[in-house]
Amino acid sequence: MSETESGLVTAGDPEAIAEAIQTEVEQVLVGNEGTVEHLTIALLTRGHLLLEGVPGVAKTTIANLFARASGLGFQRIQMTPDILPADITGTNVYRQNTGEFELQRGPVFTNLVVADEINRATPKTQSALLEAMQERQVTIEGDTLSLPEPFMVVATQNPIEMEGVFELPEAQRDRFQFKLTVDLPDRDGEAELLDRFDTNPNLGPDTVEQVVTEDALLEARTQVTNTYVAPPVKSYVLDLVGATRSHPDVRHGASPRATITFIDGAKARAAVHGRSYVIPDDVKALAPAILAHRLVLETDAELSDVTPQAIVEDVLEETAIPDVEPSEMATPKEA
């Protein structure tokens, strides 16, 4: 691992960056390795995450710890029914002492934005994030402003609360690269967490330090884009996405954006695992987080309590994995 004397990862090595961030975050949290890895993949591929879980499982804390370890600016927006789009993007404020309007930038102007309980905001306010997530810019009273780079949105939602919430529309869900469920810890994990906070009641995001430079992150992004994806792996992605569209319980399957997300995410996963090429296991590991939230089920399936997660499991089981040697996936075939 290339580091300076201060311990910062300065080389654009995705594996070293992922390892450093994981180690730093684990000083506070226990048992969230998969979530942190997906956050790292999203950061390296310009993606956004939707975290779902019951209250108290540290959804916001995970994002805050990740931002601090990555050296990212961090802002949390508490979404409520009365929050307005301008509360997110900003607005022009009249200054009486100067007689002029001054741009007041909203909390979206940072590297990592947490939209806490996003489904509590109205559809109009939710849509204020659409341009930011897709175009990485916002328009305030006719002026288009670029957002900082890197930029990512981590939204959270509570699956057990049904009153006073507005379900995310399909267009909004499709813009999230991954949707993850943050589960309750097992007994051993919770016991370790209890011991940590008993020893240090002030344990929290302030405990975590930056472990990677911005230049290293940007260099790692370039390395990820150079990761090789062999034709059989691309065909596997197309088969998986196509299977969601032809499944009898699905009214609308995954979009082409999901197909691209598979390739980008699999490249990053391969890179953080120290490979310069993608294998089918990279695709398979990311499938639940990429596909489940994009599926729109048939009415009969919903009434029968069929879940998108169960459909993804069916698709993974029924779709043939490419039977190719690692050497065929590692290098382009000679013409």
UniProtKB/TrEMBL annotation:
Keywords assigned: ATP-binding, Nucleotide-binding
SUPFAM superfamilies cross-referenced by the UniProt entry: P-loop containing nucleoside triphosphate hydrolases (SSF52540)
Molecular function GO terms recorded: ATP binding; ATP hydrolysis activity
Domain annotation AAA+ ATPase: ranges: 45-186
SMART domains the record matches: AAA
A family per Pfam: AAA_lid_2
Gene3D superfamilies documented for this protein: Magnesium chelatase subunit I, C-Terminal domain, P-loop containing nucleotide triphosphate hydrolases
Lineage: superkingdom: Archaea
Transmembrane segments: none
Name of the protein this chain belongs to: MoxR family ATPase
Source species of the chain: Natronosalvus hydrolyticus
